[in-house]
Design goal:
Elements lengths: L1 E3 L36 H14 L5 E8 L5 E5 L11 H13 L4 E9 L2 E5 L9 H4 L3 E3 L5 E3 L3 H14 L7 E5 L34 E7 L7 E6 L7 E3 L14 E5 L4 E5 L10 E4 L3 H15 L7 E3 L10 E2 L3 E5 H11 L2 H16 L5 H16 L22 H13 L4 H6 L2 E2 L18 E10 L2 E10 L4 E9 L6 H23 L7
Parallel strand pairs: 1-17, 5-8, 8-15, 11-13
Antiparallel strand pairs: 1-6, 2-3, 2-21, 4-5, 4-16, 4-17, 6-7, 9-10, 9-14, 12-13, 18-19, 19-20, 20-21
Length: 519
């Protein structure tokens, strides 16, 4: 029996020849009029004009536009300059993971019984217990009935019920085996003042519930706010409530949560003026241990005491035993799509480390994952990989470097790949429709051209890379990388530039493919 969090999303298949990329990125002045429209100097000139109109004196902006069909780079403005990519880094990670793990790869988390012992055997799945995916997931029970719209408590109950069905009356030891990844914690270059945030939750060999706890609260006038829900339910956690419930004219909801790493203690800060509908998230810190506590607590409530729960030691023998309950499965297509559409950092980092584990046979780590991505880049891009530095998988680290020309070369070689190309392209957010660009580029006529892309933002950095595809299948890759955005409103201006570059491409190739009147 299997629990599949989400089937592979439907994809629109595009067919591209697996042609080699051009080694030379041509400047507009170097190309002839025989090349496609985008090779003409007016596109580069229009982009230069857009950059000049921003009035940003300190910003460093790299732009590249490439014809996917031929691989020819047709616009390059500071295209070879290494820049910080922010979450555009996810395009490298997801592409390398698809190539290295395969488009049919599935993360699998197993529960095993070995006598009176239980083992949770992890595979680095970032989607295990993800509340948003659970809400979309299907579960087929032992009687063949399909259940949808599940919660984290449903998932935990499925394991508890399966354990009860084996006839176990006690558990001498619950072992969480997360050794598929090295237990490294947060990346050394992640922002130290943001490590409690859900988006800074590091990957583990057993991830759980997005590696975050979700809390809601309601005002309690004159007192600290009332904690109305904690998910997953974890009554053993100590919560120190230092919040307020002020309801004055100038008061508002400002609740936030800090986690004390050593004890796992949570502290509520800020004000609760009105009841929270959407939860406030805080990083769990050690999701493998937390999952063990969740299972042990629920087994105890069910009358099956757990004498001890622990993490598997590094030198222990491989975990074995009889399978208990459903195998929790997540296809890589689901992971890549959630990573690129919703920019989930945990998903990117889990892909990075899982790729590192696959390529080396050792526990996945920041280092072997970065080497695996670098190797994929060098293999696919050759000289275009010059200037790339891989620090993490999500782009939270400021140690990452890419070039705009290298980015469009990477996007092009992926789109040209007949095996992973369609899946990769369709994993991206669609401008005006989905993900982090659902409210952007709405002035592009989607009947003529579609923009599928990935955003990127950290302090003073804003990037956008992806594809513009016309209705006739003509496709161009683009990358706009903006760094040193320290001036007033510079991030907003950079986003405007990114949208304008996409529209310039879309208008040109879209008009070319517009059907004739009466045709």
């Amino acid at each position: 029996m299997s629990w599949i969090l989400m089937d592979r999303p439907s994809v629109r298949h595009f067919s591209f020849p697996a042609v080699a990329l051009l080694a030379l990125c041509l400047s507009p002045s170097a190309v002839s009029g025989a090349l496609p429209w985008a090779a003409k100097p007016d596109l580069a000139g229009s982009i230069r004009a857009e950059i000049a109109a921003l009035g940003l004196k300190k910003a460093v902006i790299g732009v590249s536009v490439r014809d996917v069909s031929s691989g020819a780079c047709v616009v390059s403005l500071r295209g070879s300059e290494p820049l910080v990519p922010a979450s555009n880094m996810k395009l490298l990670t997801t592409g390398a993971a698809l190539l290295g793990l395969g488009g049919d790869f599935v993360f699998r988390t197993r529960l095993l019984r070995d006598g009176d012992r239980l083992i949770i055997l992890g595979d680095g799945d970032p989607a295990l217990g993800d509340p948003e995916l659970l809400a979309q997931s299907n579960y087929v029970d032992a009687d063949g009935f399909v259940h949808t719209g599940l919660t984290i408590e449903h998932l935990l109950a499925a394991w508890v019920d399966a354990i009860k069905a084996t006839g176990m009356t006690r558990v001498s030891e619950l072992v969480i085996d997360d050794r598929i990844f090295a237990r490294e914690g947060a990346h050394s270059l992640w922002p130290k003042d943001q490590l409690d945030a859900e988006y800074c939750s590091p990957p583990f060999g057993v991830n759980f519930h997005g590696n975050a706890l979700h809390v809601t609260a309601a005002p309690n006038p004159g007192h600290a706010p009332t904690i109305t829900s904690v998910s997953p339910a974890s009554p053993w956690l100590k919560i120190v409530n230092k919040g307020t419930s002020r309801a004055g004219k100038n008061d508002r909801n400002t609740m936030w949560i800090a986690r004390e790493p050593a004890r796992g203690e949570l502290t509520i800060f800020g004000n609760v003026k009105t009841a929270y509908v959407s939860p406030i998230a805080v990083s769990i810190g050690d999701p493998a241990s937390f999952l063990g506590q969740c299972i042990a607590h629920r087994l105890g409530v069910a009358g099956i005491p757990v004498e001890s729960a622990r993490i598997a030691g590094a030198n222990e023998p491989l975990s074995t035993g009889a399978a208990v309950g459903p195998v929790l499965q997540t296809p890589i297509a689901t992971v890549v799509t959630r990573c690129n559409v919703e920019s989930q950092n945990l998903y990117a980092e889990s892909l990075l480390k899982r790729l590192g584990a696959k390529s080396t046979g050792a526990p996945g780590s920041w280092n072997n994952g970065a080497v695996a991505v670098s190797t994929a880049l060098a293999s696919r891009l050759g000289a275009h990989a010059t200037g790339f530095v891989i620090s993490d998988g999500s782009g939270l680290s400021r140690g990452n470097r890419v070039t705009a020309d290298g980015m469009t070369a990477w996007l092009t070689t992926l789109a040209q790949d007949p095996t992973v190309g369609p899946l990769f392209v369709e994993s991206l957010a669609v401008a005006g429709k989905s993900g982090t660009v659902r409210n952007r580029m709405r002035d592009i006529d989607q009947d003529l051209a579609t923009v599928q892309c990935k955003t990127g933002y950290i302090d003073k950095v804003s990037c956008l890379s992806g594809f513009v595809t016309a209705r006739d299948g003509t496709r161009y890759a683009f990358s706009v990388l903006a760094n040193n955005l320290s001036e007033v409103e510079s991030v907003g201006k950079a986003k405007k530039l990114q949208d304008r570059v996409a529209k310039l491409i879309a208008d040109a190739i879209g008009e070319r493919s517009r059907p004739a009147i009466g045709g």
